[in-house]
From TrEMBL:
Record's keyword annotation contains Ribosomal protein: no
Statement: the UniProt record of this protein carries the keyword Mitochondrion: yes
Name of the protein described by the UniProt record: Tubulin nucleotide-binding domain-like protein
Compositionally skewed regions (Acidic residues) per UniProt: 499-517
Annotated ranges, domain DML1/Misato tubulin: 120-304
Source species taxonomy: Eukaryota, Fungi, Dikarya, Basidiomycota, Agaricomycotina
Compartment(s): Mitochondrion
Region of interest: Disordered: 496-517
Similarity section: Belongs to the misato family.
Keywords (A to Z) from UniProt: Mitochondrion
InterPro entries noted in UniProt: Beta-tubulin_BS, DML1/Misato, DML1/Misato_tubulin, Misato_II_tubulin-like, Tubulin/FtsZ_GTPase_sf
Residue intervals of the Misato Segment II tubulin-like domain: 2-103
Signal sequence annotation: none
Chain's role: Involved in the partitioning of the mitochondrial organelle and mitochondrial DNA (mtDNA) inheritance.
Length: 517
């Protein structure tokens, strides 16, 4: 079956994951004559999720699995004959969208419902969830009194995982059962918030690596968006956050097969790439939909029916040199004709200072995987030419996959301006929501990663020399900080020789590169 076990941890990751799984649900076809786009047996497994308070109205046991465990059953009558006062926490009310789904009533795509969905501000990711989950797929990490106080402390996250695993047998029961149920496991795909679940999740991945040492692990860590070369070392909170990112990257280099960092949406720099989007960077419901669309499409070849590509192939192409374990996620949403394509591709993995399309760079592409959705034959022909010229790559280092348009279920936020030819947004809203959208998603490995790793290494060196308080706040002693610095320099050296300062490859300097008509 070539199954993939999915693990997600943290609020941002669960927002992304909910859109991801809603898209998977939309691929189901109920007409016997319809051929499904994807092989559903590969997915539809859910892993680690967020803290209990982030689940909203989602219950571990639902309509499909309604038998409550003993711990959740009402208490039996005991020998006490006196009055009993029972205190229960009020249940969180279900969202209007969830109530409509339960009644089998989805809003019509009229203008009023379009405005309603756009203004929807879910309290939790479960407010727009369309799926039922089996009980063991949802793991609720309890809200500990000192959780917030130790947020960002890497070693504390490791301690919490070991305690949680010991008390709940996460590895021995839940994870092992998923693995044993798989006929031909591809590996693990993981998305997690580094700020809250970094130490926790990477320790989980260490245990997976110890138990299944040949397993392929693809990770999408959500980082802070801070540029390590621009950190004010006097700002302890900022320094602590950047160090957390550095420790995460070092840990993933040891535990993951390939990693694709994603920067926090609030750090995005809006520009040409977002002119056809009507989004608020602080609205996680909206921004997570953008990220999910690209993440889901970039990994779509792993699930396409009739395609034999697997996680090992994907990671092997991105890291053919065996020294470049970190790649970038970028793309265009929605995809429309016209303009400079290179200016409309946004890199969701780069820090803001590195993603400015006006900055001329000399980065070299090592590998690139392009997935287009819903493009015409002429658009496909033109974009493939752009990919080849822009990257300077050919097969097998460059691959292109073309599929049908990306689905937009009713749970998807209404964030698209109508397709228009001018650069000015329209003055009227659409009367109905689109069911699908065209897009371009890319996974690329470039020499630009070296400069980011060097920035983290330099930051660690500064902490060692200045003996900053942030080092202790991040849970690292002086020796651990020195080890971090050395490891980051070694990782940066792995990209040495790939960057060619005199090369024009990747700059898009040639006239006409990136033009799609």
């Amino acid at each position: 079956m070539r199954e993939i076990i999915y693990i997600q941890a943290g609020n941002v990751s669960n927002y992304i994951g909910t859109h991801f799984w809603n898209a998977q649900e939309s691929y189901f076809t109920y007409d016997e004559d319809s051929e499904p786009l994807v092989n559903h047996d590969i997915s539809f497994r859910e892993g680690l999720s967020s803290q209990a308070t982030k689940f909203g109205s989602l219950n571990k046991h639902n309509d499909l699995y309604s038998d409550l465990p003993v711990a959740d059953q009402p208490p039996s009558e005991g020998p006490w004959n006196g009055p009993v006062s029972e205190y229960r926490q009020a249940l969180i009310e279900k969202s209007e969208y969830q109530l409509c789904l339960e009644k089998g009533e989805e809003k019509d795509d009229d203008e009023e419902s379009t405005d309603d969905m756009k203004s929807l501000a879910p309290r939790y990711w479960s407010d727009y969830n369309r799926l039922f989950y089996i009980p063991r797929s949802v793991q609720q990490v309890p809200d500990l009194p000192d959780w917030e106080a130790n947020k960002g402390n890497w070693n504390y996250g490791k301690i919490i995982f070991n305690r949680f695993d010991s008390e709940n047998q996460l590895n021995e029961e839940c994870l092992r059962q998923f693995v044993e149920e798989s006929d031909n496991l591809q590996g693990f795909q993981t998305t997690f918030d580094n700020s809250s679940f970094g130490g926790f999740t990477t320790t989980f991945l260490e245990s997976i690596r110890d138990e299944f040492n040949k397993a392929v692990v693809l990770t999408f860590p959500v980082l802070s968006g801070l540029d390590p070369s621009k950190i004010d070392v006097e700002d302890i909170a900022q320094l602590k956050t950047a160090l957390q990112d550095a420790v995460c990257i070092r840990a993933l280099n040891e535990t993951a097969t390939q990693s694709v960092p994603i920067q926090l949406p609030v750090s995005w720099q809006l520009g040409d790439w977002s002119e056809r989007l009507d989004i608020d960077k602080a609205n996680l419901y909206q921004t997570s939909a953008v990220l999910s669309s690209h993440l889901e499409s970039a990994t779509l070849p792993l699930r396409l029916k009739g395609r034999q590509e697997d996680l090992s192939d994907l990671c092997g192409q991105l890291n053919w040199s065996q020294s470049s374990r970190f790649s970038h996620l970028s793309g265009v949403l929605p995809f429309v004709d016209g303009g400079d394509l290179s200016k409309r591709v946004f890199d969701f993995s780069a820090v803001v200072e590195s993603s400015d399309s006006d900055v001329e760079r000399s980065d070299k592409y090592l590998a690139q995987r392009n997935v287009t959705r819903g493009l015409s034959a002429s658009q496909i022909f033109n974009t493939e030419g752009v990919f080849s010229l822009k990257s300077g790559l050919e097969a097998p280092y460059l691959s292109n996959v073309h599929a049908s348009a990306h689905p937009l279920p009713s749970s998807y936020p209404h964030i698209f301006h109508p397709l228009f030819s001018s650069s000015r947004p329209p003055t009227t809203r659409p009367k109905s929501a689109p069911k699908t959208t065209a897009l371009l998603s890319q996974l690329s490995t470039t020499s630009a990663t070296a400069s980011v790793l060097q920035g983290y290494a330099s930051l660690a060196r500064t902490c060692v020399r200045r003996r900053t308080a942030a080092s202790d706040a991040a849970g690292l002693d002086a020796d651990e900080m020195r080890e971090l610095e050395e490891a980051l320099w070694t990782m940066a050296d792995g990209y040495a020789g790939f960057g060619d300062e005199e090369s024009d490859v990747g700059n898009g300097e040639e006239e006409g590169i990136g033009e799609v008509e």
